[in-house]
Every structure is written in structure tokens, then in C-alpha cells.
Amino acid sequence: MERGIYRCIDASLDRAVEGLRVLMDVCRFSLDQTDLSERLKHLRHELVLALGRDFSQRSVLVNARDSQLDVSRPQESSPIPAPYLDEAELFSANMSRVQEAARSLEESLRLFDPAKARQVENIRYRLYDLQKEAQPWVEKLSLRRLMDFELYVVTDRTIGRNRPIDKLAGEAIRGGAGCIQLREKTADIRSFIKYARLLRKVTREEGATFIINDSLDIALDCEADGVHLGQEDLPLEVARKISAGRLLAGISTHNREQALAAEKGGAGYINLGPIFQTATKGVPVKPVSTGFIREMKPLLSVPFTTMGGIHLDNVAEVILAGADRVAVVSEVMGADDVEKAARLLLDEIHRAKEARAEKQAL
């Protein structure tokens, strides 16, 4: 038997066994699903048995190993892999790795032992079944589910004319907002915490995503879904490290380089903007225009939001340019009827998406 095929079997077996160990630990410690963990453990043992546990066969594989000259061995110059967004992504990546390794083992074994290849094939199909069974539990770990919205409303007590912030948030959600961001630039820390806890209660009751602007400590304290960072705020990698995967970390970007760096750095979502001229932040920022959306749409694999000067009369331009999510402040928070303003904006978003779909179908 060629030494190369032994190296292939050795590498694939190690990948599969190591990946299964990761899956076992996620099921046990993150999902609290000991049954799934035990079943993965049995599959792991079966896989090793299928290749033979006797010393001679394992020694053949180990002796064929040449990790020093492996072309895939990491070097000093090798790029550092992008961080996982959350535990769900960790689980999915390792499940794919195990399935691919099992297929490689199966094909290699067909060269000289079709019976063992069939054993590995059966294990692979059982992994498919287990993945489907685990999926509902894994989805609970996913931060991506928090991006299932189209209208994102950012609070501003001044624009809201100092009306009760929790009341305004509730009205916005009932009008169709799927995400509320608490942005506070003037409140003292105790007031900020009070507002955060009020909005966490409302968003939880109404089933909306809740994000805190800038303040990671308050986001963690009130069990927010995410934290939104600006270019001059806490660095993304620090926020992700401190939150330990508990928060969706979003970041504002104003050019291509910032957006791509945010994706590489593990941002849960990226905000593109300001799309149009806006005075909401009090500091003039050059608009990026809808052309920036068209530029970044094919380049980004993470969800993105759009913000800045977006109103009922121009939101269609944003959607037609390729956006799926729109963030606003004054258009909703400043309205006399907040619920109606949100509903009108969402209706316009839906109409624009329908028009976009029709255009793409031509």
C-alpha cells in the first residue's frame, strides 16, 4: 500500500476524532444535552474501531505520518483564521469537518477494504441524522437568529421629546420594528442602567432584538442581545473577548476597508453609513450614498444594516440598492404616532423588496 494513502487515512481519522470531541463538548457543556454527547461519543468509538484498534495498524498510520513536512502545517506567515461568531458556528464547522473527514476515510478505504468503507459510510449517515436532531438546540446558540428583522429603531430621548422611552420602544415594535438599540449620550450611568433594564423588559416581552450602543458593561448587566460599537469605541476583538460569545457585536463602518476588517474581526453584523446626510449624531459625516451598499453587498457574508438620513421618502432607494435591514432614529422616534410611523416605513420596505425581486427575476 502506498505510504501516501496511509497518511491520508491517518489525517482524516485524526480530523474526525478531534472534531467529534469538540461536538461532544459543545453538546455536553453548552447545550446541556448529555444524550447527544453520549451518542457522539459512541460514534467516535465506532470510527476508531472501524479502522482497527490493534497496535500494529495504528503504528502503520503513525509511522506514515510526516507532520513536519505537511504542506498544510501552520507557518509564522500563515493567516490567522477568522474567529467563530458563536458556538453555533463552532458546532457547524466541526460537524462539517467530521463529515468531510469520514467521506475521505470511506473513499480511501475502498482501495483495499470495502467492508470497512461501508462501516464508515454508515457512521457518516448517522452523523447526518444526528445533525438534524441537534439543529433546534444548536440554533438556540446562534447569534445570527437575532438579525431576523428588517426595521431597526435607535432611541433618542431628545428627538422623542422626552416621552417615556419604554413606551416609545413598545410602540415601535408593535409597528414592526424587530430591533431596538438604546443609544444614550447624555444620561448618567444610573439612568442609563434604568433605561437599559426597561427596554430589555419590553423587547423581551415583545420578542424584539435588543442592542446597547457603546456600553459593553451595561449590555452584559441587562442581558442585552448585542452591543453596537463605533470606530472610536472599544475595539471589536476586545468586546468579543470580554463578552465570551454572549453578545452579538455590531460595528459602524464608513468605507470598504472598515467593513471588510469588521467582517474579518468577527463582527456579528456591520452597519453601513451614513447613507444620506444626517445631523442625528451632531457631527457632520460625509454620506457614503447607496452606491456603497451596491459595492459591499457582494463582498460581505455577514448581515449588514444601513443607517443615516433614511426616511419614508428615500428608504426604497436603500432597499433597491441591496439592503435588507434599515436603521432609523428620527423617522420613528420623532413621530407623533410612533407605531404608525414604524408601520408605514416597514410597508415601504416590503414594497421596495417586492420591486427588487421582480426586477431581479427579469
What does this molecule look like?
Strand 4, helix 9 and strand 5 form a beta-alpha-beta unit. The chain has 362 residues and is α/β, with parallel strands linked by helices.
Question: Could you provide a short overview of the structure?
Answer:
By secondary structure, the protein is α/β, with parallel strands linked by helices.
Return the CATH topology of the largest domain: TIM Barrel
- Report strand %: 5-15%
CATH class of the largest domain: Alpha Beta
Total helix count?
Answer: 14
Biggest sheet character: 8 strands, parallel, barrel
Q: Helix and strand string, N-terminal first?
A: HHHHHEHEHEHEHEHEHEHEHH
Give the total of beta strands. Answer: 8
Cα shape: elongated
Structurally, how many domains make up the residues? 2
Q: Uncertain segments of ≥5 residues (pLDDT<50)?
A: none
What would you call the quaternary organization?
single chain
Spatial extent as radius of gyration: 25 Å
Full CATH superfamily name of the largest domain = Aldolase class I
What is the residue-averaged pLDDT? 91
Describe the strand arrangement of the main beta sheet, using strand numbers. 1-2-3-4-5-6-7-8
> Ends: how far apart?
56 Å
* The CATH architecture of the largest domain: Alpha-Beta Barrel
Indicate the percent of residues in helices: 40-55%
Structural class: alpha/beta
Keywords:
362 residues, Ferritin, eight-stranded parallel β-barrel, 8 strands, alpha/beta, 14 helices
Layout of helices and strands:
Blueprint: H1 3-30, H2 34-51, H3 55-64, H4 87-109, H5 114-139, E1 151-154, H6 165-174, E2 179-182, H7 189-206, E3 209-213, H8 216-221, E4 226-229, H9 236-243, E5 248-253, H10 256-264, E6 269-272, H11 290-296, E7 304-307, H12 315-320, E8 326-328, H13 330-333, H14 338-361
Parallel strand pairs: 1-2, 1-8, 2-3, 3-4, 4-5, 5-6, 6-7, 7-8
Helix pairs in contact: 1-2, 1-3, 1-4, 2-5, 4-5, 6-7, 6-14
